[in-house]
Design brief:
Elements (H helix, E strand, L loop, with lengths): L8 H11 L4 H28 L7 H20 L1 H9 L5 H7 L1 H22 L17 H28 L4 H30 L7 H22 L4 H38 L40
Protein name: PQ loop repeat protein
Subcellular location: Membrane
GO cellular component, one term: membrane
Length: about 325
């Protein structure tokens, strides 16, 4: 089996020559993006762990985000330009090889970081529904498990199809890469709508991290530009996704900042009037006291106050 059989000699030589003359400006930008992607997800990981709940995060946001990042990572792995870069590693220096594979590493880090969010979402999923009582549609533990299973099944299907094409139909990998890229773009485009709706309905960000969005929103456009410079117009299915997500995440960020500013203003007004109100945290969510609220996750299921509703499967 040869993963690179679908490449022509001319295109491979062209890619290798390009790797041997890297743009140090683009290289520095790519390294900063790689570190930025990793750092940008850390506030979200910390946010869920520190609050002890994934309350306020839409299950559909997690589902679409995980499947989108999986498709995007698989897209760049099977893209002809990426396969040519990997093939060139046999001919160029280690430094030139590493520089040429930074685009793949960036999407790999993003996929891994979002998988951690999926894991934390499942572990810290609250026992009680996260939506207001007047909302008929309630998200339960079964919803969270279903999301995790669907993400796993999607990843397995992508791996099986990719491996099958590599073995039997390597010349179809370009079309498969575009299919994955289009799928990732569509999923990313609709990924933020459930979260935008949920945040608007709750009127606070809950466990959604504003610092993460502050880093990722401008970073999406910078990342798109970096990938466009590396892959060219033929890589539109890869970098186009980040233009779409940047716009939608910016909308969610603006909404989160608005609700946070409104919540702080209300706290300042009520504190000035000496009125006792429910305390909220630094991003508009309710403060957890003694580790127990109406949204206490299953991780703390061994301590359930009598005032809490019974766990619903």
């Amino acid at each position: 089996m040869d993963f690179f059989n679908g490449l022509t000699t001319d295109s491979s030589n062209s890619r290798c020559e390009k790797l041997q003359a890297p743009s140090y400006l683009n290289l520095a930008l790519s390294i900063l993006l790689l570190l930025g992607i990793l750092i940008s997800y850390l506030p979200q990981h910390y946010r869920i762990i520190s609050r002890g709940t994934s309350e306020g995060i839409s299950p559909f946001f997690i589902l679409l985000g995980t499947t989108s990042s999986t498709s995007a990572f698989a897209n760049i792995l099977v893209l002809p330009a990426s396969r040519a870069d990997v093939a060139c590693c046999k001919l160029v220096s280690t430094f030139e090889c590493a520089a040429g594979l930074l685009g793949i590493a960036q999407l790999g880090v993003q996929w891994f970081s979002f998988c951690i969010i999926l894991f934390l979402f499942l572990v810290f999923f609250p026992r009680a529904p996260t939506l207001p009582p007047d909302e008929q549609k309630e998200y339960t533990w079964r919803t969270a498990v279903t999301v995790a299973i669907l993400c796993l099944l999607h990843g397995l299907v992508v791996i099986i199809v990719s491996v099958a094409l590599i073995i039997a139909r390597p010349h179809h990998l370009g079309a498969w890469a575009n299919t994955l890229g289009i799928t990732a773009t569509i999923l990313a485009a609709i990924q933020y709508f459930p979260q935008i709706w949920m945040t608007w309905h709750l009127k606070h960000v809950g466990s959604l991290s504003i610092p993460m969005m502050l880093i990722q929103t401008p970073g999406s456009f910078v990342w798109a530009g970096s990938l466009a410079a590396r892959l060219g117009p033929t890589g539109w299915s890869t970098w186009g996704m980040f233009v779409v997500t940047g716009c939608l995440q910016g909308t969610l960020l603006g909404m989160g900042i608005f609700f946070e500013a409104k919540a702080r203003k209300q706290r300042e007004n009520t504190e000035g009037e000496g009125v006792n109100t429910i305390e909220t945290d630094d991003e508009g969510g309710p403060v957890v006291e003694d580790g127990l609220t109406e949204n206490t996750p299953l991780l703390n299921g061994s301590r359930k106050p009598s005032s809490q509703p019974e766990y619903r499967d």
